[in-house]
């Protein structure tokens, strides 16, 4: 009888957990039942070789998470092991489920924007922009050029900060603590930039429907410029340290490898699908903001393993810096408003509200009623967030609150591939695999 | 010079305050917005008349409605044919990448629920949305997991959130909520606050019992703090039992 780390034996069909779980017992029963009934090629393959009563107790069910530092949040995976080999795995998510889609239905479009900060909390600026762009598409609001360039620049900084966390934490999972300190020093600089620009380090809430909240100060420009000048050198240093590092390569090569066909089938997105050789990047596929006017390439690899994902993300960071530089150049001589002028659609500036009665009325109406799309309007807008395609499908009933919001979260799609990656690999590689697909539970659990 | 004094110095520099001058961009106009404004965020990928035409030719009357908003094509189909349509789109039209699928509650309309599918052809740079409608009397939709494996979790989520059963799905468990939960929270009749007592909450102390009342304090019961000794020898000390006795 296999030994489980929680409850008693799972065979026999009764799923008697022996009182180990009084909390949500049916959920755990269903999970174990799934683990038992799941068809796995590896298990079928190994079954004839296995002795019936398993005298060495090779077989075991192990519960990873949801409270485990290496799972990057509250991810839970129940695995069936044969020795150190993972025969099958069942991923269980939902431990951070807050019902964002339900919450959105009772908020105006602008009111929901701060909630998107809490989705992918490693790149809140991208989420804000994704939400605002989706609303702007639904209503049909034009965004001033300066705001678009600022949004784009900040989104790329958010991508770098997200990849920095992935890199530091991923390497720490593999045992290299010093890289964690280096990347967090750089991330700290990006957070200081966010602080200067938006007034908040993590939950920035800077985008507004029709533009952004406030323009960048000269100090912020100087800081971003300084960062863009300094960062590539840091990146080159890490590349020198890691790209030919025997331990790091051995730890990653061939781990969690999937082919291009499998990646398409499993619906992976972002750097994970690009590491399999499929050129699917929303910045090229459906250019939004000003991505069709800047010069950058999409890093691609064909191996599809953890090492390929590492290279893709590393190269993406230097491409992002390239975009940031181009944005800085363009913004230098670009005057203009940072929010759309029409205060029926977007918040008027604070100066205007304080000095003009009509603007104050509009400001009040936008807060109370919100901007209203036509009845029955529905549209989908996606951006390339650091984790992949982040899209919002919205349906309007003609009021200032959405009738239904569907969040297409990239981490959710990426985690779906985890079971396939894990089955057939060693349990020690699980941590590397989870790190390499870079899930954020706040987003995948909504 | 101290660090904070440095900051004070820069604040007084008039050149740094140039961006803070008052600007009045907007002159209020009291007229409705024009009806047919071009959508500034419309994408070329979502406009797929040739795919819609191919679907109409192949499936005839099963294509119930074709919509276009913000340059996005939406095709409404009868739900019995959804697997055939997906197979046709995947194998003959090149829509190999399954992006998203989910439920929609239309509440007071006939055929209350909708399921939408968001499909992408990476090669041809195309995106299409297809929809099927589900009535309350028959809450089932054929599962497309046999065509697109990526639909697995999305269909589980739609089952969890709306109670739409996907026939032929290999593993139709709830996605986010635990199996112990009986409701489908994204339905319009489900209250935003949740249903008190629908899920047991963790015990207040390591050896305590499950809490069934999420609003214990509001109902007059002060929960035990974790650092306090649990009143384990006394029966009926937790919120639920006290409520039952009232």
Write a short abstract of this structure.
In chain A, 48% of the residues lie in helices and 11% in strands. Chain A is α+β, with helices and mostly antiparallel strands and 446 residues long. In chain A, helix 5 runs antiparallel to helix 6 (145-173) and helix 8 (218-242) packs antiparallel against helix 13 (306-332).
Overall pLDDT level of chain B: 80
Could you please say which CATH topology of the largest domain in chain A applies here? Cytochrome-c3 Hydrogenase, chain B
CATH class descriptor name of one domain in chain B: Alpha Beta
SS content category of chain A? alpha+beta
Low-confidence stretches of chain A: 1-15
Largest sheet of chain B: 5 strands, mixed
Within the CATH hierarchy, at the fold level, what is the topology of one domain in chain B? Answer: Beta Polymerase, domain 2
Name the poorly predicted regions of chain B.
Answer: 7-11, 239-246
Total strands of chain B: 7
> What is the percentage of strand-forming residues of chain A?
5-15%
Average pLDDT metric of chain A? 86
Query: What is the CATH-assigned architecture of one domain in chain B?
Result: 2-Layer Sandwich
Strands of the largest sheet of chain B, in order across it? 1-2-5-4-3
The main pleated sheet of chain A reads as: 4 strands, mixed
Q: With helices defined by DSSP (H or I, 4 residues minimum), what is the helix count of chain B?
A: 5
Structural topology:
The complex is a heterodimer of chains A (446) and B (246).
Chain A: E1 3-4, H1 25-37, H2 41-46, E2 59-64, E3 76-82, E4 85-92, H3 100-104, H4 109-117, H5 124-139, H6 145-173, H7 177-198, E5 207-208, E6 211-212, H8 218-242, H9 246-252, H10 260-266, H11 271-274, H12 282-285, H13 306-332, H14 350-355, H15 357-368, E7 378-385, E8 388-396, E9 402-408, H16 410-416, H17 418-422, H18 430-437, H19 441-444
Helix pairs in contact in A: 4-5, 5-6, 6-7, 6-13, 6-18, 7-8, 8-13, 13-18
Chain B: H1 3-11, H2 49-59, E1 63-69, E2 72-77, H3 82-91, E3 97-105, E4 113-121, E5 126-134, E6 140-142, H4 151-162, E7 165-167, H5 239-245
